[in-house]
Amino acid sequence: HFLLHNHFLSVLRYLPEDILRHIHAKMTLRDAARATCASHAFRHNWICRPNLTFSLGTLGLNRNASRDVITRDLISKIDLIMQNHSGIGVKTLDIDLYSCDNIDFAYLDSWLRIAVTPGIEELILTLPLPSIVFENALPIISVYNFPCSLLSNGSGNSIQYLNLCYCTLRPTAGLGCLRSLTRLHMSCTRITGDELWCLLSNSPALVCLKLLHCEEIISLKIPSLLQRLRFLEVAYCDRLQVVESNAPNLTTFYFAGFLGQISLGGSLQLKTLRMICFRQTNIVCYARQNLLSIAPNVETLTISSLNEMVNTPMLSSKFLHLKLLQISLVGMAFSRAYDYLSLVSFVDASPCLENFVLASSGIDIGPMQISQHRMGHASILGEPSHDLRQIPQQRHAKLKSVTITGFCSAKSLVELTCHILENTTSLDCLTLDTTCHPSCAVTKFDKCHPLMDGDSLVEAQKALLAIRRYVLGKVPSMVKLNILEPCSRCHAVESLV
After folding, report:
1. 3-class SS at 125?
2. For residue 218, is it within any domain?
3. Residue 255 located in a structural domain
4. Percentage helix, strand, coil, to 5, in the chain?
5. I need a surface site. Which of 130, 297, 403, 453 has the fewest CB within 10 A?
6. DSSP alpha helices (H): ranges in 42-192?
7. Does the residue 222 lie in any domain?
8. What is the spatial distance between Cα 421 and Cα 423, in angstroms, rounded to a whole number?
9. What SS3 state is found at 424?
10. What is the residue range of 10's domain?
11. Global pTM?
């Protein structure tokens, strides 16, 4: 090891400065620091290191220590590194202080003054949850005020990515032009709609904008000068009432929260739209009635609804470009009057539809189960087969894949499945999942995940019986049918047949 070490050091003496700088920049922070102790060749590169990423992991700190110890060690190590850095050549500054308590913001101001200079490209700042301090015996929420002045003297010209979490951002009309900023992410950031407008108006190159839990924004307005904006995500900004975008080339819009007034300027470029509304009902109905005016050329549409008390209406309007439709129904157990068959309105209105996923979720929009164990819909079991309703035929020539997760024995759900089978000439695959999601699977401990209770297992058996009675006979021979059911070994129940 000694000989190899000496040979390595001797080789370094003959490498050009730019190659040494490149090698050093590719090392992790800990390895780069160690290398400076082993070689004079790396010492200059260390004080000009372009990528500074500070977290418990990159600094090798004990994650199991108390928060006081974590705060002390993290602050002291970062401060030592920053005070020994020249401030020249910093491209990326990523500071993660989420695990800390009671930070003296003077340290943070000092670090930013050193690193945020002309040439910086990425600035990521994650602070701890706001703490409560007392001033004159009055409680005050302590939130870090990001010094916008750092971006006003030419330092903001080079920045391409700005990500702030748990900060206060108060940009003013004097803010310099952030002409290179392409990505702006803000989480739990205190900024008003007017202040955000000021920031956006100074960011003509913006491509991606993400706003999460920004509670002070009531009205979000995006100026038309953002010609390059492609991606917009607005999630859980609880006081938000208006979203108005005039960005002409927006292609993707994700929205989660309370649905207020949304206007995207009838963007003809919008191809992907996702809406999650957990505090309102009838979002699927709203989408069928209004989304064509918001996104007439949408190709991928995902809707997550808390509860649908109103059936989806049959309308003449068409989603002429829609290829992927995902509908997540949350809390459908409490909406006994809802008619799953009315979702034919969406399917029939989408002549180019290729994939249809009907699901329910409690957390995200990924395919999950329709709540089986509390299913309040009338079961089809015991119904004569000739009592199944039929809707005037609308042939689907491009629909290839249909997935229904959490499939249950609800009559209207079986009717929807049969309608699709009888009117789809292009279908390749039908998947009916009767389990709770994630699907029943054996763990490394040779046991199944305990996700399905007794009532869920009984309903799963009813769903399997409904499939055998009403669906199997309608599946064409060229269609692959996938039926997912509970693990027979760990969730066996007596057959209801």
Report:
1. strand
2. no
3. no
4. 30, 25, 50
5. 453
6. 43-47, 67-83, 105-115
7. no
8. 6
9. strand
10. 1-44
11. 0.84
